[in-house]
Amino acid sequence: MMRFQNLALCALGALTAAALAFSSPQAPEAAARNGADESAAIEARVEALEREVAALEAFVESQAAAGAALIDALARCEAEGFTAGINPKSREVLLEGLRAQAGAMKAGADEKKGGASSKRVRGDRKRRRQER
């Protein structure tokens, strides 16, 4: 049985070597054409991804601007007495939640620019509470 396995392996190896030796290599022009097609496809994909990134950056920047405007509006609401009256704690909770949302909106643009983080927003809230 062992002799048959050795013989079969040798025959298979010889057939593989012969097939590789007599097969024709790919023409150089075809290989160059395939490479050019692949690089053109890669370039098109990169351009599409760059457009997508630019659109996402614009969205993040608009969200950051909206977050800053929301933070200002919340501060004006507090200054006008929004948290005074019946059940002021619920209004404080609402403002805190909206400030957290606004901080999250700004966080992506701030990190990209290397600016303030949401920790600064939390510090501002603590400072405002102490001022009351």
Give a description of the structure.
The protein has 132 residues and is an all-alpha fold. The protein has one domain (28-131). The chain has four helices and no strands. It has helices at residues 2-22, 28-79, 88-113, 118-131. Helix 2 packs antiparallel against helix 3. It is elongated, with a radius of gyration of 33 Å. The N and C termini lie far apart (94 Å).
Task: Offer a concise description of the structure.
This protein is mostly helical and 132 residues long. The chain contains 4 helices and no strands. The protein is elongated.
Describe the SSE topology.
Blueprint: H1 2-22, H2 28-79, H3 88-113, H4 118-131
* Overall number of domains: 1
Q: How many strands, which pairing sense, and closed or not: the largest β-sheet? A: none
Distance between the termini: 94 Å
Number of strands: 0
Percent of sequence in beta strands: under 5%
- Total helices: the number is 4
Mean pLDDT: 75
| Rg, alpha carbons | 33 Å
Q: List unreliable stretches of 5+ residues.
A: none
Q: What letter string, H or E per element, gives the SSE order?
A: HHHH
Derived from helix and strand composition plus strand pairing, the structural class reads mainly alpha
Helix percentage: over 70%
Shape: elongated
Oligomer: single chain
